[in-house]
Amino acid sequence: MRDVIRWKHAALLALAILAAGCSSNSKKELPPAELTSFKEEVVLKKEWSRSIGDGQGKIYNLLVPAIDGDTIYAADDTGIVIAMDRMNGDVKWKKDLELPVSGAIGVGYGLVLMGTLKGEVIALDASSGEQKWRAQVTSEVLAPPATNGDVVVVQTQDDRVIGLDADTGHQRWLYDSTPAVLTLRGTGAPLVTNRLAVAGLSTGKVVALDTHNGVPAWETRVAIPQGRSELERVVDIDGGLLLSGGNLYVASYQGRMAALELESGRVLWQRDASSYSGVAQGFGSVYVALASGTVEGVDERSTTALWSNDSLARRQLTAPEVFSSYVAVGDFEGYLHLLSQVDGRFVGRERIDSDGLRARPLVVGDMIYVYGNSGKLEALTIK
After folding, report:
1. Residue 3: exposed, middle, or buried by beta-carbon count in 10 A (0-12, 13-18, 19+)?
2. Quick check: 67 and 362 in contact, CB under 8 A?
3. Contact at 8 Å (CB) between 362 and 377?
4. What are the residue boundaries of the Pyrrolo-quinoline quinone repeat domain, all occurrences included (predicted)?
5. What are the C-alpha distances in Å from 21 to residues 170, 257, 261, 360, 375?
6. 137 has a pLDDT exceeding 70
7. C-alpha separations of 266 from 15, 84, 86, 145, 304 in Å
8. How far, in Å, CA of 160 to CA of 145, rounded?
9. How far apart are CA 55 and CA 192, in angstroms?
10. For residues 159 and 120, is the Cβ–Cβ distance under 8 A?
């Protein structure tokens, strides 16, 4: 098993590049699409900007900031963690963990949570940044832990889901799942409610666990591996899960996007899709950034595509986010694109970071927060 895991880890970065939309069977890879001109309808105004250390670092990290109340928390790959006033960017506290942070940030119930490449989970006090506890788990943590105030749930690269006591960090339970032979580098962040901890696995399954004991409540397969080679059979759920009302939205690589009933895992609808970044939801539609670089708007009720914009082909898109009446998505050259929710046309564009954008944008009220690969964190509003 150890040899399989080593092979799997050696292929992670290559598969992350593959996820950008390149075909392993292509004799000549197509370049990223050139940006096209359009009539600008929306102009973004920078409210504040701050540097967060080294940002995403040189490996394929997805260090997404987190917002809780009036505070935004961000971390870089070297372990610098900063808490800022989300309205003006003023620093409330700063902590240097001196550890290779790879899964950040989870926040809630007075805790700031993150994981490391060394398989550690660290909990800081949200108001002061002081360390409350540190726990060792089975392997590297590439997505932010989540908490309901009673248990902290973390998903590791080896497809284990672990429940830790929120007060002490002591392990309460462990759900063990056999990972796929090959996988993209990363895992989706788990979701936690009072009763359920939900995680997407590298095998294309979604599992819901009882938060008290880790016993599975339900398990649903979203994607079925297909193809002759292990590369063709990669069906990771890496883009994270989206909970809206009682519905859970999920997308897999080389598989499907689907809506599930949270309490039962019953599939409400599904359609073919390939995404490694995830989905957004708003105004009766679900928005997905496909691995090819196409952005789609899908009607929740009929599951038909309302619109499709392929002008960002092969530009390694972030997960989409709903911002006002628009869909926001970033790309590898650091541009933030705004698309109309109605028909998918471009309405605005702003370059944030020349080193690129990888982390999902965050939206609270009338402000969007964008964290660039180099460490530039910007807050923007619509003029």
Report:
1. exposed
2. yes
3. no
4. 78-309
5. 41, 17, 30, 18, 25
6. yes
7. 30, 40, 38, 25, 20
8. 13
9. 27
10. no
Q: Mean pLDDT lowest for which of 151-165, 228-242, 313-327?
A: 228-242
Q: At residue 351, what is the residue type? A: R
DSSP 8-state secondary structure symbol assigned to residue 113: E
Give the chain's length.
383
Q: Confirm if 49 and 377 have CB atoms less than 8 A apart.
A: yes
Global confidence as pTM: 0.91
Nearest CA to 182 out of 210, 218, 157, 207 is that of 157
Nearest to 299 by CA among 318, 314, 285, 281: 285
Half-sphere exposure for 200 (CA within 13 Å, toward CB)? 33
Retrieve residue 245's tokens. Answer: 């009302």
Q: Which of 97, 96, 115 is nearest to 105 (CA)?
A: 115
Residue type, 218: W
Tokens of 68: 């809780």
Give residue 248's identity as a one-letter amino acid code.
L
Residue whose structure tokens are 């089975």 = 138
Report the C-alpha gap between 225 and 373 in whole angstroms: 32
pLDDT on residue 13: 41
User: Would you state the structure tokens that stand for residue 293, as one six-digit string?
Assistant: 């670089």
CA separation for the pair 82, 140 (Å, rounded) = 22
